[in-house]
Amino acid sequence: MSTQQLGIFVRTQQDIKRDLKLQGHVSITAVRVSNGHLLAVIDDRTLLHQSLATNNKHVEIKIPVGPADAVANIFLSALGQHCIVTTKQGENFYVQVRSNSVFPLKKLKGVLSCVGWNPECIKETETGHILMGTTQGAIIETQISSNGVISFIKEHSSSFGGEKNLGVSNLYLYMINDDNIKATKWLMLVCQPGRLYSVYASVDMSPSPKSNYIGAANLQAGWISMPETPPYMFHSFFSTKDSQQTCMSMQSTASSQTLAGLSALLMHPPHGEPTRFLWLGPGGITIGKINVFADKPRDIVEEEDHLEHRRYEGRLERPVGVSLTEYHMLLAYPNRLNALSIYTKTVVFEDTWQPEFGNAVGLVSDPTSEFQWLFTSHVTMKYKPVDENRYVWRVFLERGDYAKALTIARSRLEIDPEAHELVLKRQAEKYISEKNFTAAAEILAQSTESFEAVVLKFMSAKDSKHLGLKTLLEKKLDGMLRPEDRLRREMLVIWLLEIQLAELAEARREGREQESADLATHLQRFLMRKNVHDSVVVNRDAVYNLMASHADFDSQLFLAKQIGGY
To answer: Start and end of every Pep3/Vps18 beta-propeller domain (predicted)?
Structure first.
């Protein structure tokens, strides 16, 4: 299947300058999208705020940078409430997204490279405690109100990991356990070029006291001074005695040194507890599983596969942006977007665009939706997934992972019923080849294959197939609830009675007393089932005769007590 045929993403694009009728030069260098808000740096000192939820209403926000300075990057909170702007000379600003208000953060210096937003604070009035990484490797904690007031600034590390000038590309914070507010368990993930750190620490989240003084009735002085509680809370991450840390390194080659600064870490899902990660570094792309609840830091991140960067015209090809969905990793290159299956690592979708759109500058995802956003110097392209998992069931099927294949095929039952049938058939065939006829029967009972064709698979005198046939018939009987199923339901009841009476008679002849007792109990419970009872009442003469043919007078007596007429 060609990548064009697969069409798992559909692109729509917008020329920012032309479609929004912007005046002046437009050169997009950064884009962030979340919760219906698109923010883009469109020149050295202008931030475009486009409301995607209100017919693309937009505002140009002027950032008061110095004459020789320019905006370097922007960081948008997960719900699109707060934005932090950093400049090339290390000045920083806060933008309150709803009001488009800009506030200089004069105390905060340094070129920011990432923000680890606090997942436990979703207030519009403040950011809560957040961590920020810089291009020089520092990690800073702060808290900013919606009017731009900084509560405090605390530099926890001037060069995280010990190597100077090694920037921090990504920071993630997760609260793991809050049973004890004075010792809540947190996880911090720190990504640097070629390094991925996992750090566990206990964090005291007790509210700060409103006063540093308390009354002392037993002291004539009346007041005593209490030790001041520090305003920051994430310091334990940076203490060797209070934290557990592990570091995963990405192997690099001599040729990959040309990509020495390349670094990105993506999580999926972006909200809540992630289960999968994509790590981009100088040595390539690592993809794997993540378990934020692992007991030890070394068990948090599990590498599944690693892809080296491709060579193009003799040089390593550098992605300008990466993203991660449930089923695909997206790699943006200057002239195309590739989607690779996270299972097969093959390209299943490729999109190129008209040369006049320009080269891709970056790729970002909206954490509140399924949309991916690629941008050039003047065009934004939104990629919407369309039946993104359409081929994934087959990947699991070919791997023999029938449970996952069936889950995906069942979710697409209305779109592709043949896929569901094929998975059921292949799983049943596997069970039959293993002589597990009961399991095969349970699977085939879900199939829409003709009843006669399915029954033929179990028509044999062998005990194992006999049990499979009985299981199949019982599953089919359970599904016959409509009034128009009455005749087929009565037929199945008689058939199942014949099978069970034959089993019981054989066990009694061979003196298997315990098995006979179990089979008799099972038969009695079967006769008491509502759908069986109704069919037996209608066909009581045939049922009594069937029991008599097996000389099963105990069952006749039991049935007579239940329905009479004998």
So the answer is: 25-380
Q: Do 417 and 404 sit in the same domain of this protein? A: yes
pLDDT tens digit sequence for 37-69: 999 999 999 999 999 987 778 999 999 999 999
| Unique residue bearing structure tokens 């390094």 | 195
C-alpha span between 318 and 364 (Å, rounded): 16
**How many Cβ atoms sit within 10 Å of the Cβ of residue 180?**
11
Same domain as 559, residue 487:
yes
Overall pTM > 0.85: no
Query: Is 339 within 8 Å of 330 (Cβ atoms)?
Result: yes
Residues 6+ apart with CB under 8 A from 557: none
Cβ atoms of 562 and 528 closer than 8 Å:
yes
- Considering all CA atoms of the chain, what is the largest pairwise distance in Å, rounded to the nearest integer? 104
Contacts of 386 (CB under 8 A, 6+ apart): 7, 8, 9, 10
Domain housing 514:
480-566
- CB burial of 273-295 (b: ≥16 within 10 Å; e: otherwise) equals ebebbbbbbbbbbbbbebebebe
Percent of the chain at pLDDT > 90 equals 58
User: Of 475, 491, 506, which residue constitutes the final position of a domain?
Assistant: 475
Q: With bands split at pLDDT 50, 70 and 90, how would you rate the model's confidence at 546?
A: confident
Phi-psi region of 356 (alpha: psi -120 to 50; beta: other; left: phi over 0): alpha
Q: Tokens 């199942």 appear where?
A: 496
How much is the average pLDDT of 446-458?
A: 58
